[in-house]
Design goal:
heterotrimer; A mainly alpha; B mainly alpha; C alpha/beta; B: two-stranded antiparallel ribbon; C: alpha/beta; four-stranded antiparallel sheet; 28% helix
C-alpha cells in the first residue's frame, strides 16, 4: 500500500513537472473535435446528437491511446525498470499506480473536452443526460486505464510499440464503446424505453472488474524477464 | 520428450481417421438426411457448416488461452507451442466462419454484412483480437519473452469472449435478426436437425484437433531442425 | 541442500541466460562466500551486466541454478530482494524528481523509514543536494545517488556494475569506505580491478558469456 501510494505520487509528480501527457491529450481532443466540426462545414452532423455521441466516444478512446503509449517511457529511457523490479514491493503496485494516474489524466482531459463537445455538437437543444455520461465516462476510463496499463507494460520493451499498443487494445475497446455509446444515446430525451442506464453501468462495472483482476494477476508476467 | 515417440503418430492418425469419418457422416447428413428448412429453403444448410465452425473457433481460442495460462505457471516452452497452434488454427476457422457467415447472410438477407447482428459483431471483435495476437507475436523475437507475452494476451482474450458476447448484446438488443438457434427452451430445431448439427459440430472439432496435432508435430520438427542446424553450424 | 545459515552468499551452477537466440551467459558457475567480495572482469559484452541482473532478480535464469543465501531463484526471488542492493550501469533515478524524492520512492518500495534518507545522503556526500533534481546533478553525483539508493535498506549483498565510472576522487573514497564497512558479500563488475586492491577476495573473468 505504501509502495502504491509512493508510485502514484511519483507518476503524478512526473506529469506535473514534465507536463508531457495531459497537455498533449487536451490538444489532441480539442484538435479532433475542431477537425470534425470543420470537416462538416456548416452542416449538422447527420444523425444529430446520436452520431455526435458516438463520435465523442471514439475520440475518447484515441486520446487514451496517446496517454498509454507514453506509459513507462521514463522507466524505459533511463533504465529505471531494474531499480523497480529489484525492489521487494509487489510488481502489481506499479500497475495499479499507473492505472490510477492514467485514470486521473483521462478525467482531466474529458473535463476540458465535454464543454467543447457540447458547444460544437449539441446545440440543437437535446443532449444526453450529464449524469449518465459522466458515470459512463468514469467507468469506461477506469477500464481503459487498467487494461491499458497492463498492455502498456507489455509493449514497453517491444519495438514498434506505438503501433502495437492501439492494435492490441482495439478489440477490447469495441465492447466498451458499443455499450457506452448505446447507454449515452439512450439517455437523450425523449427517452423511449431504450437501454436503461443501469444495464450499461452494470456491464461497464463487469468489464472493469474482469480487467482489474486480470491486470493485477498478469502484470507480474509482463514485466518479469 | 523421447518416450512417447510411438504414441504421437498414432494420436494424429486416430484423430484424422475420426475426423474423416465424422466429416463424411456430417456431409451425408447435411445433404441427404436433414429436411429442407421451411422458411429459408435449401441454402439454409450452410448453417450446419457455419455455426459448428464458429463454435469450434471459440473452442480453439479458449484452448489457446488455457495452454497460455499453463505456460505462465509452468514455463514449459512446449506449452507455448500448444497455445500458439490453437490460436493459429483460430485464424483459419475464424476466417471460414466469416466467409460462410457472409454467404449465408447474402442468401438469407441479401446483404454481405449486417452490423445490427450481435453475433456477427461479437465474432468480428474476437477475430480482430486473434489478428492482434499475431501482430504481437511477429513483433518479438522467438524465445521466452515472446512466449510469455503471447500467453498473457491469449489469457486476456478469454476475458474478452464473455465481455464481447454480453456487451454487444447489451448494446444492440435487436438480435432477433440472427436466427435464434438456441433459446431458453433448448435447441430451437426438431430432432433430425439437432442431430445433424451435433454431428457437424463433432466433425468440425475433430477436424480442428487433427489439424492441431499435425501442426504441432510439424512445428516440433521445425524446432528440432533449427536446433540441429545451430549445433552443426557451431556457436557464433 | 544446505540450510540458509550455512549457505554461501551467492552460488551459481551452470547458469545460462539467452537473449533470443544469442547466449549471454553460458553455464557460468561461481560461489561467493559470506562476507567475500568478488570482482567480475571481462570486455564489453562478456556478460557481466547480465550476470549481475540475474543476481538482482531482474532477469530469470534460463538454465542452471542460482541461489542467494540458500534461496533458489526465481522461485524465492521475493525473499531475496530485501537483502540485495543493486547499482546498475544507470543510477536508476528519475531525472525530473529531486534526489530526496527519488530516495523517498525507494524508501517506500523497500519499506524503510525516512530517517534513512538523510543517513544515505550523508553517506554519499550529497547533503545539501537533496532538493536538486537528479537530472541536474553531474554524472558523478548521480552515480553517488545511485549508490545511496542501493544502501537505503542496508542490504547484505551488494551488486555493483562498474561503480567507479564517473566518480571523482571524493566519490571514490566514499565508495571505498562503503565497501570496507560493508560486512556482507559483494559482486562487483569492473574495468579497473586494480583499484579494488585490498578490498577484493577473488576475481572471475568472463568472456563471451563463459567463465574464463
Amino acid at each position: 500500500m505504501r509502495a502504491y501510494r509512493a508510485l502514484l505520487r511519483k507518476d503524478l509528480l512526473l506529469e506535473l513537472r514534465g507536463r508531457e501527457l495531459v497537455p498533449a491529450m487536451v490538444v489532441f481532443v480539442v484538435g479532433a473535435l475542431v477537425l470534425v466540426r470543420l470537416g462538416l462545414g456548416g452542416e449538422r452532423l447527420a444523425g444529430g446528437t446520436r452520431a455526435a455521441t458516438g463520435l465523442l466516444w471514439v475520440v475518447v478512446v484515441f486520446t487514451s491511446m496517446l496517454a498509454l503509449v507514453r506509459s513507462f517511457a521514463q522507466e524505459r529511457e533511463h533504465g529505471i525498470w531494474d531499480g523497480l523490479l529489484s525492489a521487494p514491493a509487489d510488481r502489481s503496485a506499479i500497475w495499479a499506480a499507473r492505472a490510477s494516474a492514467t485514470f486521473l489524466f483521462l478525467g482531466v482531459t474529458q473535463a476540458v473536452a465535454l464543454p467543447l463537445f457540447w458547444l460544437f455538437f449539441l446545440q440543437d437543444g437535446r443532449s444526453p443526460s450529464l449524469a449518465v455520461l459522466a458515470a459512463a465516462l468514469a467507468l469506461a476510463d477506469l477500464g481503459v486505464a487498467m487494461l491499458g496499463a497492463l498492455l502498456a507494460g507489455l509493449v514497453s520493451n517491444v519495438r514498434a510499440r506505438e503501433v502495437l499498443l492501439p492494435v492490441l487494445f482495439l478489440p477490447f475497446a469495441l465492447p466498451l464503446v458499443s455499450v457506452a455509446v448505446r447507454m449515452t444515446v439512450d439517455s437523450i430525451p425523449p427517452q423511449n424505453g431504450g437501454l436503461g442506464a443501469l444495464h450499461g453501468l452494470g456491464f461497464l462495472a463487469l468489464y472493469d472488474t474482469i480487467f482489474a483482476l486480470l491486470g493485477w494477476a498478469l502484470f507480474e508476467y509482463v514485466v518479469e524477464d | 520428450m523421447n518416450g512417447s515417440h510411438r504414441a504421437r503418430p498414432d494420436r494424429a492418425t486416430a484423430a484424422a481417421t475420426a475426423a474423416a469419418l465424422l466429416m463424411a457422416l456430417a456431409l451425408a447428413m447435411i445433404f441427404f438426411y436433414v429436411p429442407t428448412d421451411v422458411s429459408e429453403g435449401y441454402s439454409q444448410r450452410i448453417f450446419y457448416f457455419h455455426v459448428p465452425i464458429a463454435l469450434t473457433t471459440y473452442f480453439l481460442f479458449t484452448w489457446g488461452a488455457v495452454n497460455g495460462a499453463r505456460f505462465l505457471l509452468k514455463r514449459d516452452m512446449s506449452l507455448d507451442l500448444k497455445s500458439y497452434v490453437p490460436m493459429h488454427l483460430g485464424v483459419i476457422f475464424g476466417s471460414l466462419t466469416l466467409v460462410t457467415g457472409s454467404i449465408w447472410a447474402n442468401i438469407a438477407w441479401g446483404t454481405w454484412w449486417f452490423w445490427g447482428d450481435t453475433q456477427l459483431t461479437t465474432f468480428l471483435i474476437i477475430f480482430l483480437f486473434n489478428c492482434a495476437y499475431f501482430m504481437l507475436r511477429f513483433s518479438i523475437e522467438p524465445g521466452e519473452r515472446r512466449a510469455t507475452f503471447s500467453a498473457v494476451y491469449a489469457v486476456l482474450g478469454v476475458g474478452l469472449i464473455p465481455l464481447s458476447v454480453i456487451g454487444v448484446h447489451v448494446a444492440q438488443t435487436n438480435d432477433l435478426i440472427h436466427p435464434i438457434t438456441f433459446n431458453e427452451n433448448g435447441a430451437n430445431m426438431d430432432g433430425s436437425m439437432f442431430l445433424t448439427f451435433l454431428v457437424a459440430l463433432a466433425a468440425m472439432i475433430s477436424l480442428s484437433v487433427t489439424m492441431y496435432l499435425i501442426e504441432l508435430r510439424g512445428k516440433r520438427i521445425d524446432d528440432r531442425l533449427r536446433a540441429i542446424r545451430r549445433l552443426a553450424g557451431g556457436e557464433a | 541442500m544446505s540450510s540458509p545459515e550455512s549457505a554461501p552468499a551467492v552460488r551459481c551452477d551452470g547458469l545460462t541466460r539467452r537473449y533470443g537466440e544469442r547466449v549471454a551467459l553460458d553455464a557460468v558457475s561461481l560461489t561467493v562466500a559470506r562476507g567475500e567480495r568478488l570482482l567480475l572482469t571481462g570486455g564489453n559484452g562478456a556478460g557481466k551486466t547480465t550476470l549481475l541482473r540475474v543476481l538482482a532478480t531482474v532477469l530469470r535464469p534460463h538454465a542452471g541454478e542460482v541461489a542467494i543465501d540458500g534461496h533458489v531463484l526465481p522461485r524465492d526471488a521475493r525473499k531475496v530482494r530485501p537483502a540485495i542492493g543493486y547499482v546498475g550501469h544507470e543510477p536508476l533515478v528519475y531525472p525530473a524528481l529531486t534526489a530526496r524524492e527519488n530516495l523517498e520512492l525507494y524508501a517506500a518500495l523497500y519499506g524503510v523509514g525516512r530517517e534513512r534518507i538523510d543517513q544515505v545522503l550523508d553517506l554519499a556526500g550529497l547533503n545539501g543536494r537533496g532538493a536538486d533534481p537528479a537530472g541536474e546533478l553531474s554524472r558523478g553525483l548521480r552515480q553517488r545517488l545511485g549508490l545511496a539508493r542501493a544502501m537505503l535498506h542496508s542490504p547484505s549483498l551488494l551488486l555493483l556494475d562498474e561503480p567507479t565510472t564517473g566518480l571523482d576522487e571524493d566519490g571514490r573514497e566514499r565508495l571505498r569506505g562503503v565497501l570496507a564497512a560493508h560486512r556482507g558479500a559483494a559482486v562487483i563488475a569492473t574495468h579497473e580491478p586494480d583499484w579494488f586492491a585490498g578490498l577484493e577476495h577473488g576475481r572471475l573473468r568472463l568472456a563471451a558469456g563463459r567463465a574464463a
